[in-house]
Amino acid sequence: MTSQEIRYYAGLDVGGTTIKSILVDGTGNQIGEMVEVASQVKDGFEATFQQLSKALELLTNQIDATVTDVKGIGLDVPAPSSDGVIWGQANLAANWVGKNIRDTFSKKVGIPVFMTNDGNAAAMGEYVTRHKHFGGLLLVAPGTGLGGGLVLPGGKIYEGNNGLALEIGHISVPFREKNGELPSCTCGLKGCTEAWISLVALRRRVEIELADPKWKDHPLNSGELSTEEKAFRLRDFAEKGDELAIQLFRQQGFIFGYAIADMVRMFDPGLVVIGGGLAEMDFRDQYMEWVKEGFAERAWPMNQRSPLDENDLTTRFEWARGGDSAGALGMAFVAQEMFS
User: Fold this and answer.
1) CB 117 within 8 A of CB 77
2) Which end of the chain is more exposed for a tag (fewer CB within 10 A), N or C?
């Protein structure tokens, strides 16, 4: 078979700082290594297009192919979009908004492109890594915020009518601060799940707790650490069994599980995958138990176990497996499915 007859498909995962890219063949098997380049999203979409083209060249060069051998591209972006058009700026430059990124990039490279958001891409990547899983999959991934995505049974991303579905960080939960108020979310609303389950939330919570006289002698109350540094160091403290850190992560895990119960009631995915930095914690098994406690508090019995067989779990929990390559892998798989 000549190189001209070989068909490859690329997954391009655009992040705030880097683009991760993967190439697969016509059977969906990864070819070569993942390639990573700077994204330059703050410099505008044209600058990022140059980096995307660079990623395609690096991907194909490593297997002695050319970009013309790529017959389809899966592209994900860190912003809300609908039918290829960016609807919100998020961490992008202002000139992305209102632009049909999918069609414009497709015209530039001469290759058909499918585009979605980064949460959907990562969810598909987690689906792909589970070769024998054919049911639904709900990904929930805390980071600076709280994102995720839903893959329907059989392997189709659920995007909603306008591509805006699964903004799971903005489901409301009935938990309040000690003063009785609902915490404010970065989206402008109050009481969102993201206001409890995110790095931003952890920064708020650690400052509130450290103001309590109970923790006046805590190591995080000494020195000149910024709020960001305190929140970042909490994981190290928790791994050493620190009481304050454990208290904060236990509360977060419980509320997380509580919110997941409502998501399960709506979508019944069967499998819930937890990603983000939580998947890399040394105490992640304990954290998962806190999540399951919150889930059990809110979930219907039938969302936990089958009424026909109590040993049959109707909702399973797993940690993410895909790591940094999940989004790119998911997009490469979608491109292969759509354009082969």
Assistant:
1) yes
2) N
Q: What is the pTM of this model?
A: 0.93
One-letter amino acid at 336 equals: Q
One DSSP character per residue, 86-113 reads E---TTS-GGGBT-BHHHHHHHHHTS-E
As a CATH number, domain 8-129+324-339 is 3.30.420.40
Q: Do domains 8-129+324-339 and 137-320 have the same CATH topology?
A: yes
Alpha-carbon 243 to chain mean position: 29
- Domain limits of the chain? 8-129+324-339, 137-320
| Contact present, 98 and 79 (Cβ < 8 Å) | no
- Residues contacting residue 136 through CB under 8 Å, at least 6 positions apart: 150, 151, 152, 153, 267, 268, 269, 270, 271
Each residue of 225-262: pLDDT tens digit? 899 999 999 999 999 999 999 999 999 999 999 999 99
- Which class does domain 137-320 fall in? alpha beta
Closest CA to 19 of 34, 9, 8, 7: 34
As given in the structure block, the two tokens for residue 149 are: 């995505």
Q: Model confidence over 12-39: pLDDT tens digits? A: 999 989 999 999 999 999 999 999 999 9
